[in-house]
Amino acid sequence: MIRLVAGRLATGAALLVLLSLLVFVGVDLLPGDAANARLGASATPARLAETRQRLGLDRPVLVRYADWAGGLLRGDLGTSVSGTPVSAILGGRVANSALLAGLTTILLVPISLVVGMWAGLRPGSRRDRGVAVASLLFVAAPEFVTAGLLVLVFAIGLGVLPAVSLIPPGAGPLDRPAALVLPVLALLLLHASYAVRMIRATIAATVRAPHVEFARLNGEPPRDVVRHAVLPAVLPVALQVWLLTAAALVGGTVLVERVFGYPGIGEVLVTAVRTGDLPVAQALVMVLGAGVVVALLAADVGVRLSTPTLRTAEQPAPVAFR
Amino acid sequence: MRWPGTRVASGVLAVLLVVIVVGPLVAPYDPAAPVGLPYEPPTPQALLGTDALGRDLLSRILDGGLPMLGTALAGAVAGSALGTVAGLLAAWWDGRSGRSRWVEGAVLRPLDTLAIVPPMLLVLLILTAFTGHAGLVLAVALTGVPLSARVLRAAAAPVVTRAHVEAAVARGEGPAWIVGRELLPLVAGPLVADLGIRFVAAIYVVTAAGFLGVGPSGTDWGTLIVEALPGVELAPLLLAVPVVLVALLAVSVTVLADDAVRRSRAVLA
Amino acid sequence: MTAPGLVEVRDLVLCAGGRTVLDGVRLDVAAGEAVGIVGASGSGKTTTALAVLGHLRDGITHVAGTVHVAGAPVLPGRPPRGVGYLGQDPGASLNPYRTVRAVLTAAGGVRRDRAGVDALLGRVGLPAGLARRYPHQLSGGQQQRVALAIALARDPGLLVLDEPTTGLDVLARADVHRELASLRAAGVALLWIGHDAETLAANVDRLVTVADGRVVASGPPEPARFTLTSEAAPAEVVLAASGIVGGYGATRVLHGVDLHVGAGERVAVLGASGTGKTTLARVLAGLHPAAADTVTVDGATLHPDVRRRTRPQRAALQYVAQSPSEALHPRQPVRTALHRPLRLLRNLRGAAADAEAAALLEVVGLSADTAGLLPAELSGGQRQRVSLARALAARPRVLVCDEVTSALDPGTRDAVLGLLGRLCAQDGLGVVLVTHDVEVAATADRVVVLAEGHVVADGPVPDVLGGDLLPGGVPSHLVELLRPDVADPTVRGTVNVVPSRRAAVTAPTVVSDDSPPTG
Amino acid sequence: GSPASAPTVVGSGGGGAAESLDPFISGTPSDYARNWTVFDELFAISDGNPLPRLAVGVDQGDGAFTVRLRDGVTWHDGSPFVADDVAYTLRYLASPERPVPHELTGFLDTAQVQVRDPRTITIPTLQPVGDPAMLFAGAGMRVIKDGATFAPGGTAVGTGPYRLGAFEPGRQARLTRYDAHWDGAPFADEIVVISLDDPSARVNAVRTGEADYAADVPFTVARTGAGGDDLEVRSAGDTQRTSLGFVMNTTIRPFDDPRARRAVRMLVDRQALVDRVLLGYGVTGNDLFGHGARYFDDTVKAPATDVAGAKALLEQAGAVGAPLVVRSAEYEAGMNGSTELFVEQLKAAGLDARAEIVGVQEYFAPDALAATHLLTFPLGPFPLDVTYARSAAFPTLALNDAELKTAVATAFSTPDEAARAAAWKTAQAVMADRGNWIVWGLADTLAISRRNVAGIEVRDSAKYPYLGKAGLA
Ligand SMILES: Nc1ncnc2c1ncn2[C@@H]1O[C@H](COP(=O)(O)OP(=O)(O)OP(=O)(O)O)[C@@H](O)[C@H]1O
Ligand SMILES: Nc1ncnc2c1ncn2[C@@H]1O[C@H](COP(=O)(O)OP(=O)(O)OP(=O)(O)O)[C@@H](O)[C@H]1O
Ligand SMILES: [Mg+2]
Ligand SMILES: [Mg+2]
């Protein structure tokens, strides 16, 4: 297990390096650059050239990459083309987005499990079909549309929840929990629907599995069948779904953040990419990519631990030690 | 699971497809030209009212189905095709124990790299690089490839060890025959299902791109949704019509794709 | 509990989507009686058995008739108490997420303590040490017995058994048969489903035959038939393999196996599940990497990798894989299956290939129209013949057949084995018949017994397979041979927990201390 | 206004997280709103004219000018404001470490600045500057304290009406009243400047009572109504309108021919664009940028719409059927919409026009600009110096015309008020006659506000109002 984790982390790191190079060179090849974006309408050729020189954009791309990578190794994320250090820009924002993603995931776990079970234990029943169609609808609607509707109903209509996430300086989103409700809800409706669909399907399939039939036919009470035979079979799949959702939420909160003006990485991400702010874009690619690597690894480890065949694969059968 | 879902979904999809394909021909007005003032309510002349620039919503809806479908389909097909080839190759090389694994690595490592970029970031990067529909197709395809490859690889894994595949190897068939004729027909079910999911994701990417300000202009339904957002209070139909159409399309396609999964033995067995 | 007329099935009609699955089944089991049900695949055996348990699978509807167990109606959905059930596939029946102890502690709706669990294990002949294992850490026979223990946990008066030994190798099968025999002796009624009338006959009081959802015959079973044949010793050696070593990763499966086959000779390779028979066959076929060039055909050494063998070499040794449903591509018609080897190995195309394909089909006893059919449109026996025809298309000198009959019903099996015999006699073809089935092995000229990757016996059929029969039709002499604890003491204690490629057949390569103390 | 807290929502046009305490890095509207309140400038623009702030006057010299500074001004930390602070500021913004060269460094020789006494400073120029006060006002130069640096997480000390309290880039800045401000104590105890990227989010914040004022809100809000009895939609007024238009590239065909330029100006239906893109919240333009600035010539009329005449002109110019690419990016709301409609108008007149919508970072990429025929161009009510300097320096935007060049040069360099006015008049006449601008509309700048919010002034731009005198009535 330790070897697995170490190996996967090493591969993940290697992939991140590859990725950073791809993104660096790729973004550099885009038409326009940070100097253009920065100067806008005042970008006279002379100013443009001078700005390029000041930002170091006139140097070859690989030299800049090496510079950036060297800085990264020293723990220096570089300086945004706006002149602000990247670490200052990202600072609390990464944590805020992670909070949004984390809260959504935490809520998603019990909700998707309960709803998925409720529907999946009676495959084909009325409630099962109802859940299937409702979840499909939520999956089909973009979350910013859902979010907009939520604002219209709960903030502007009923006035019970804030329409925007105004977090005072020095405070975190947790200091204003009300501001988190709608963003989390919007994310939850989309992602939980997906998780419910997957979990429902697995449960529906497991209910028909031979080991469940066997237990039932040999008189095991229904509650025990669900607890001992159905749930453990669903867990590996559910774990995968949850962690993959968490991975998708890393950087996937952009749209909702924008609707609510939530102080996460969403706006930074969009601006950095759109203005060719390479140091910021790079840092985000690294942070988000690392997040995904960890989430995927956690998913694999979780599945391994929750599946006896995999868990025991590396150790001899218990009795062999006697 | 015998419920009318599949039949209803096929019906809805058929109607939508007719609207999408015939739409551009029957649109009452030029979808790009203003016919009135912005945000006019429905009138007999403009049955669904006008949009933010005074253009006829109905004409735009009718005109925008085809580009939307085209983009989504092209992206989905491209992503699925790439994923399928990669997945099958990987499964094939993985399935042969004791043989060199580098090909599998060469196929899967780049995809893994893609897979660790959050999709929204990937979409932003790609659409900043390539504006317009070509960029969207690429974005849809690239965000889908890693997952498609994994799905197809999983589906193909039990197939590659089948005796008829080995028989083909033993009698000296080449890789084209083995991947194309021995493996591909047996993963058709997962392939179709994957295609359905890609298609829904494609529609989503189009809308999300528009929302982030990197989408193409035009009448694409996804673009219509985004354009409608600022004026939603003035003209709710502007948002409601494309959202409902996209939802119907997505739901019917998903239902049919689910059905394909259910019927495909390779996924369940 | 043991009142007469324990099970009464009267005119039971069950339908599935408009099709009649059971068409007026009438069946009785008296207390303490052992009744066997046989019938072709799909004839409704499983459906009947489940109906006795008050269970209808999804999609099956109750149309008419009654099922009473111990006087109480069980249909619809009122499962009887005191009936134990043992499914077809022990590997799949056990909850893969719980240890044996966890399952047995609460089995049958009663909580029992450690001693209770151990007692239950003892009843099915398993040591208490097994309780800490997960199902996948058990051999097929052990799994089957744990499942039996769960069924026994209810203290049943009746056990419903649905093909309880299909997935098991000779050893495990003998063990299970022994357990069932002792239960029967203890007065438990058995409703036992199998597709092999001969094996069942030895173990039940009465045999019921089902066909197309109807009971067509009922009566006392015929005694077991066991024929041993032996033909004259052959002359020239076509296949010679010596010191074959092979394995998976670090695990070695074959420890220097020698094998030779003469022209026109049928050599059976017999062994328990997981001893390396398939590995051996695949090494011969060049599909599995072997340590060295150890295989010769007609004196010429073959490369260990089939792709590096020359075309004539590839043609000379042909491999027929285990499952007929996997051996043929489900989307390719028989014609394609035959044309490809003709084209690649014999350079025949077009009309010439068509003619040759028709001739091949005739050789294996199929009509020429078969060429246009898809595998799904063929019966299992026909499919197996097509596989054989495909192998014969290469004009081989040696045919390596891996369990070519294990998925077939007895009639079809005999026909395929007969065909092989004919080919040997007529064309001087050498045949390697890999099997775990003693009856199949008995049809060969010579038997090579494999245990733990070692050849433990090699000789004419009567020498190896003669002697007393154990319950289940296994020669006791063979069981002695296959008991590996005698074979190699150095590997004792390392239980092989490599998950089997096929879930149904999980067996330890070495049976350690906690293996059944039999009896 | 009464001394109450007045949280203000200000839009942030993207990049909010990169907001900086450094007033010379300001990029977003909330950056400006905050820095404009914390720091004071030498001269501000008020109704198009320079308004003395930290400076009280300028004396022209030979190749240099001398700025007289205000007395009795103190920094937020209590120290007095002196000429050394101005000298430091000039050195600071000329520093080669800064990521972007400051516009002023093209005019001033910052290395040779001489501090005469604490109230007087002499600044040499690199090229003649006719109206230094206007130059400073147009460049919006704030003064920072001698030795100031702006590390993230630190604070900023200014002389402005509000001190900086807690601040989180891209989120909020809390500004507290500086009672010792030289211009009289401000009204509100505290002002909160909030950064919100999404226009709907800004409106929603005011509608749900989480903020009192949001600048730069979409026209649809005015159409829908403010959404509450205590709310109103405010317009910044005529002089604060943004000029929206297209610039024709005179370096390539067909717009190297003045007839083709004139023809297109005769084709465009300005009112239709105002009605649709601006929802009627604005008026038609007269094809000159600079509306609202001093010397702007609003007597000039745009050519009357005359499709037949335009076609004849195009014929003469040999431009019939020439492909026209209109480049646009949505860096101001309505840019892409106006481009789409404009292209439709050109098409309706039989021209082969096509919109090319790109991202903001590549919009001003020189190569691509050089190849397009028309590009969208919005411009706020900047001084004419800024407007003409910008367009002259950019080959694709510039009009290569001798008379224009002379007039603009004179207007830049002459210290004589009358001569300057005459020069600007000439320059604008050239643009009106054969220029390459199509300024089709003057867009209102709208804000949504609680009714009791008072004292919000517009100085540089209505998109980031001056909050120094704001309060709740
Ligand atoms: N759930 C079901 N829905 C529809 N048809 C079914 C279902 N289960 C079984 N059948 C059909 O009922 C018939 C009898 O099936 P059953 O499983 O009882 O056969 P069997 O005699 O046990 O065969 P085998 O020897 O292959 O196990 C078959 O034709 C089968 O296709
Ligand atoms: N791909 C594999 N990787 C690792 N071990 C394997 C693999 N395939 C088979 N084995 C192990 O190798 C041993 C021999 O397997 P093999 O398939 O040759 O047995 P067999 O004699 O054909 O058994 P059966 O009667 O079940 O077909 C078994 O212990 C099996 O678990
Ligand atoms: Mg059965
Ligand atoms: Mg085998």
Automatic annotation (TrEMBL), chain A:
GO cellular component, as recorded: plasma membrane
BP-aspect Gene Ontology terms: transmembrane transport
PROSITE patterns to which the protein is assigned, alphabetical: ABC_TM1
Keywords, in A-Z order: Cell membrane, Membrane, Transmembrane, Transmembrane helix, Transport
Keyword Transmembrane: yes
Transmembrane annotation, as ranges: 98-119, 131-158, 178-196, 233-260, 280-303
Protein topology in the membrane: Multi-pass membrane protein
Subcellular location(s) of the protein: Cell membrane
InterPro entries to which the protein is assigned, alphabetical: BPD_transp_1_N, MetI-like, MetI-like_sf
Record domain ABC transmembrane type-1: where: 94-297
A Pfam entry, by short name: BPD_transp_1_N
Assigned protein family: Belongs to the binding-protein-dependent transport system permease family.
PANTHER family assigned: DIPEPTIDE TRANSPORT SYSTEM PERMEASE PROTEIN DPPB-RELATED (PTHR43163), PEPTIDE ABC TRANSPORTER PERMEASE PROTEIN (PTHR43163:SF3)
Protein name per the record: Metal transporter
Originating organism: Pseudonocardia sulfidoxydans NBRC 16205
Species lineage: Bacteria, Bacillati, Actinomycetota, Actinomycetes, Pseudonocardiales
UniProtKB/TrEMBL annotation, chain B:
Cited Gene3D superfamilies: MetI-like (1.10.3720.10)
Record localization: Cell membrane
Chief location: membrane
The UniProt record lists the keyword Nucleotidyltransferase: no
Membrane topology: Multi-pass membrane protein
UniProt signal peptide: none
Keywords assigned by UniProt, alphabetized: Cell membrane, Membrane, Transmembrane, Transmembrane helix, Transport
CC per GO annotation: plasma membrane
The keyword Cell inner membrane belongs to this UniProt entry's keyword annotation: no
GO biological process: transmembrane transport
Segments forming domain ABC transmembrane type-1: 69-257
Transmembrane segment boundaries: 12-29, 72-93, 113-130, 136-152, 195-214, 234-257
PROSITE patterns in alphabetical order: ABC_TM1 (PS50928)
Classification via CDD domains: TM_PBP2
Domain of life: Bacteria
Similarity section: Belongs to the binding-protein-dependent transport system permease family.
Name this protein carries in UniProt: ABC transmembrane type-1 domain-containing protein
Source species taxonomy: Bacteria, Bacillati, Actinomycetota, Actinomycetes, Pseudonocardiales
UniProtKB/TrEMBL annotation, chain C:
A molecular function GO annotation: transmembrane transporter activity
Domain ABC transporter: 7-237, 239-477
Matches recorded under InterPro entries: AAA+_ATPase, ABC_transporter-like_ATP-bd, ABC_transporter-like_CS, ABC_transpr_LolD-like, P-loop_NTPase
One CC-aspect GO term: plasma membrane
Annotated keywords: ATP-binding, Nucleotide-binding
Domain of life: Bacteria
Record protein name field: ABC transporter ATP-binding protein
